[in-house]
Amino acid sequence: MMVRTAKPEDCPAVNDLMVSLIEEIYGRESEEVRRALKANFTAEALKELCVEKQAILYVVEVEGRVVAFLFGWFFRYVFTIYWIYSLKEFRGKGVVKALLGHAEAELLAKGCWKLEMYAYAENNRFLDFAAKLGFSNGVLIEKSMFGFKVQNIYKVIAEPDAEKRETRIKIVGEAGQGVKLLSYTLGQVLSQLGHEVSLNLAYDASVRGGTISADLIYSSKLIENPIIDEADILIKFTRTRDWFPAKTLVIDESMCQEESFECSIQSRQGTLYGFGDVAVSLFGSKIYINMIALGRILRYIGINILLLNIKDILPERALEKNLEAIKYGFSYRDDV
Fold it and tell me: Is the pTM of this model over 0.90?
C-alpha cells in the first residue's frame, strides 16, 4: 500500500471513486441532490478543482490500482477535507488511517494547525470512526443547501498563534456598491460555520457617495483587536489613491472599469479571476458584482456553499438573482 500525492493520470480513477462515494453516502437523499453533487465534484468540475492552488489530492495505490482518495483545501494553515473514501474491499485495512496520517504529516510541515471536515450528519459510522482517530465534534449545521444536516469535525495537530488563528478581510468600496451586504453575508456564513466573527464598518461622510470600508475578522477564538492593520485578503471596489497592505488576494479597482463594469480578483501570486461584464450581461445590473465577488471569495477560502442554505441569510429583495450571482462566482453547477 502506497499513499502519495495524486498525478493528473489518476483523475479517471478518482472520478470513479467520487461517483461511488456520492451514490453510497447520499443514497438516502433525492436523485436531485446526487446529481448536483456529481455536477460539482466529478468530471470537468473535479478537473477544475484539482488544479486550484489550494487544492490537495492524495491517493492510496495498491498493486497499481487507486483504491482510496482524500481531497481537501489548504488555506491559512487549516486543511478542510472535502472528501475521503475507500473501496469497500479495502475498508478495515488501515487505508483511511494511512491517508489521514500521511496528510497530517505533510501539512504539519507546511504550518497547518488544524484538520477539519464537514461530514454528512447521518453517517454515524464514519463520525464514530473519526472520533477514534482524534477528531472532535464542532458545530452542527442544521440545514445545508439541500436541507440535510452537516456535522463539523476537527483535529488540532499543532498549537496555533494568533496569526494562524485569525483571517483578516478588508473590503473597500463606495456607497451603493453593496459593501455592507457583501461583508454582512460573509460574516453570517462564517458565523454559522462556528467561527468567531468581528465586523466593523466605517463611512467617509465628507463627500457624497463617499467610501465605505469593512474590517471582517474570523477566528477560532475570541477576537481581541477588531481593527485590521494588514489584511490577508483585500477587496477593493473603489478608485482611490489610498492603498492598504494585504498579503494574498486583491480585487483591484484598476480592473473595475466603469464603462464595462469589469471586475476581477487578482492575487499577488498571479492568480486572476475575471468577472468581465457578467454582472450586466447575466444579471442585468452592475450591483451584482458584490455577490459574484462573494462567491469567488468563498471558493478561495475553501467554504463550500453547499454547506449552508444561503437563502436564509440573504435579504428577500432580489433573492434569486443574488443567489445566482453567488453561485456564478463560486463556479457552482446546478446539474450535470
Answer: no
